[in-house]
Design a protein that fits this description.
This protein is of the alpha+beta class. 18% of the residues lie in helices and 34% in strands. The strands form 3 sheets. Strands 1-2-3-9-7 form a 5-stranded antiparallel beta sheet. The chain has a 4-stranded antiparallel beta sheet with strand order 6-5-10-11, with no helix packed on it. The longest helix has 10 residues, at 18-27.
């Protein structure tokens, strides 16, 4: 449960879509938001949040994969983004894990697959999770941790994100096994960085 992207990895993934998000904000995204997005293509959700697929990591101990989505509150109001990381502390079975819900559902090979998800604030940002729902203040971000049970031979995973604050306009993402894997944990130092340490 403690797996998370390093700050450097997150910025590398999230920054790749900044230009396309800016263009979407200027041109409107009502039609584009309905199209499936891939890693690095952020979507504007109901004019309230920017959502982006950051990638996935294998989770063999859980019989599936862990998919990461970022959510940034672009509105002037606090948004409830769903089950918070506090719920994950009490999870002890796969059934409990897959019952966690922040508005994400998943399909693989045309079939629905179990998917449990919770939201955690980015980098200890100020967020209210006192009621076990992560509430993002204006301008704040969260990372959704989505645990999906996929078959061993899966090639693509389709996620639909439909949070309570924008239930009428879901955002669709496609995770590709051969293209969207991300590294977890600390990023190893490069030889140059190692050589500069005294």
């Amino acid at each position: 449960m403690s797996q998370s992207l390093s700050r450097r990895s997150f910025l590398k993934c999230a920054g790749s879509g900044a230009v396309s998000l800016a263009a979407a904000l200027l041109t409107g995204v009502s039609a584009a938001a309905a199209q499936p997005r891939v890693m690095g293509q952020p979507a504007l959700l109901d004019g309230k949040a920017a959502v982006e697929l950051l990638g996935y990591a294998p989770a063999p101990g859980l019989g599936g994969v862990l998919v990461y989505l970022s959510v940034e509150n672009l509105s002037a109001r606090t948004l409830p983004v769903g089950a918070s990381y506090l719920h994950s502390r009490d999870v002890s079975t796969l059934k409990e894990l897959y019952s966690l819900d922040s508005g994400v559902t998943a399909r693989s090979g045309g079939e629905s697959v179990p998917c449990g998800s919770f939201a955690a604030p980015l980098y200890a940002e100020n967020a209210d999770a006192s009621a076990f729902t992560l509430n993002l203040a204006a301008g704040r971000g969260a990372m959704l941790h989505c645990f999906c049970a996929v078959p061993e031979d899966w090639e693509a995973l389709e996620l639909s994100y439909r949070p309570a604050f924008a239930a009428g306009q879901p955002v669709e993402f496609v995770v590709r096994r051969d293209a969207d894997a991300v590294r977890l944990g600390a990023v190893p130092a490069t030889p140059a960085e190692v050589g500069s340490v005294v």
